[in-house]
Amino acid sequence: MNVAEFLQDAIVELKDVDESTLIPALTFEELELDSLDYVEIQLRIKKKFKVEITPELFASGQLKNLGDLYAYIETNQPQAAVA
Amino acid sequence: MDAGSRWDAICVGAGITSLAFGAQVVKRHPGARILVIDKHGVPGGYATVFQRPKAGAAFDCSLHKLSGMGEGGNLRRIFADLGLDAELGLKVPADYFEACLPGGAIRFGNGVDAFRQALHERFPHERAGLDRFFDEVAVHGRNGYHQFQMMDGTFEPDFAQLRYAHKHLKHVTVADALAQRINDPWLREILAATGIYVGGFPEDLGYLYFLHVVYATLTQGNAYVEGASQRLSDVLAARIVAAGGHVLLGTAVRKILSDDAGKVRGVATARGDFYADRVYLNAAPHYALRTLFDDRPALAPIRRKLKNLKPSRSTTTVYLTTDAAPADLGLASTETMIFASGADASRAARAVCDGDEACERAYWRDSVMEVTNYHALNPSGGRIVCLNVLDTMAHWPERRSPAYKLKKARALNVMLERLYAAKPGLRGHVVYTEVSTPRTYERFTNNTDGAGYGAMVGTDLSGHVFHHAFPIAGVHFLSAWVAGPSYEAAFGYAEMKAKQWAA
């Protein structure tokens, strides 16, 4: 399962939304994540991909939409985890 | 200090989160120069004391209980990191609270085991529901309590539990969740009473967050700071000043200054402009967006999102002194919850709250009233007792108007009569009183609707992340509006922001 598939499953479970709506351009604003949702997403990413997503990445706007998040994880994933 | 001077960071508002943030930054980064600005004449925001020397009283505005002060508590760890535990005297009460019900009082010892046992004894027919409630506190309350540790990797949650909590506990109110678990209406009232610590009635608060609050106050150890909250605020402010910073009081911030590229430059005040690349707002976000920023299109989405961020309830408080030790007059517990005369009356009264009379009845008479016996915590501070009810600004007229004064007198009368009904020995021994209203709190803090606890943590939390992707770089938000109410949340969020300082 790739990064996008894993996160789409997690978000569908979390927000009870239609998977077809989870396009990369969808912003976290549009997803209406709450503070607890953010914590869980960060934890799931860390556990699955060994990538640290600090709250500041969301707060600063560096990660604005799903596409940003997928790309950040893929770029920062440790090589061993990718293999 | 010269206007126009340059700082490493400016904090707008000297509330407890600003002070905790500043003290943690200067400890981690010696040499960091922080300017804290507040319109009020003393630092601390709600964490302040006001003096009435003729009455021999120093009244604490907010320090009714610090949770997380036991072994393993979040606040205890942060206090230890800052060396505050050595500098501040801490008092640990023996009791949790005394519940005054029409049929008699129940005194609860401090700690989850004592509370649970007393409830089992008094409500044996509710054992199954109580066990379920305490299991949820132990699992989901604990997970919520360790949110910051989850993010920094020092606490590993069970994901199945998180999943269950998101699906079944986050979008249900305390009132509805307790109704599903507990049949006895008085037991529901007792279990829900701690919601007053975070500014919500049972129909306001989300159950999942409420479990977190119960876990914090019941299992993580409570303590009070000797010298009350002003002492804590003063010590933190002194740390900032000792490191080369400054706490500028009596000065309102008028505008946040930013450049055309959308980067913060500093702040404008009546004493001139001050400059920094980082500005931390310890102010209600509604107030900040309405007052402190120019009307630029980039802020429109934030303003829209703020509509989902509801303020917690405000309070009406009676501060009083007695002519003898309150314990000798029948008020022995450090904290007492006085319940309305009929179980289930509270929610029904609040549901039809329309007009002065109905609101006064609902909030002042038919909802739980919390009583803090400060004398039992610190006899040297005076014979001081505080009465608190949750309230709302909506039915309070403008300050200083004749109607306002009359309404204050009515509030005083209703709340004192409730106190005397529960503790008759106090009648005739109250020698000084003062009433604070939602208008008072708005005046001193600019908090939306005079909210005493920042944002309401209800069943819709989507507005709570309004600050993400804020369009002016270098602007950060502090305070209970983003962290959740209480000292632990304030210090925990301040710690998280202080850790990000070097980034």
UniProtKB/TrEMBL annotation, chain A:
<dbReference type="InterPro" id="IPR009081">
    <property type="entry name" value="PP-bd_ACP"/>
</dbReference>
<dbReference type="Pfam" id="PF00550">
    <property type="entry name" value="PP-binding"/>
</dbReference>
<protein>
    <submittedName>
        <fullName>Phosphopantetheine-binding protein</fullName>
    </submittedName>
</protein>
<dbReference type="InterPro" id="IPR036736">
    <property type="entry name" value="ACP-like_sf"/>
</dbReference>
<feature type="domain" description="Carrier">
    <location>
        <begin position="1"/>
        <end position="77"/>
    </location>
</feature>
TrEMBL record, chain B:
<protein>
    <submittedName>
        <fullName>NAD(P)/FAD-dependent oxidoreductase</fullName>
    </submittedName>
</protein>
<keyword id="KW-0274">FAD</keyword>
<keyword id="KW-0521">NADP</keyword>
<dbReference type="InterPro" id="IPR036188">
    <property type="entry name" value="FAD/NAD-bd_sf"/>
</dbReference>
<keyword id="KW-0285">Flavoprotein</keyword>
<dbReference type="InterPro" id="IPR052206">
    <property type="entry name" value="Retinol_saturase"/>
</dbReference>
<keyword id="KW-0732">Signal</keyword>
<keyword id="KW-0520">NAD</keyword>
<dbReference type="Pfam" id="PF13450">
    <property type="entry name" value="NAD_binding_8"/>
</dbReference>
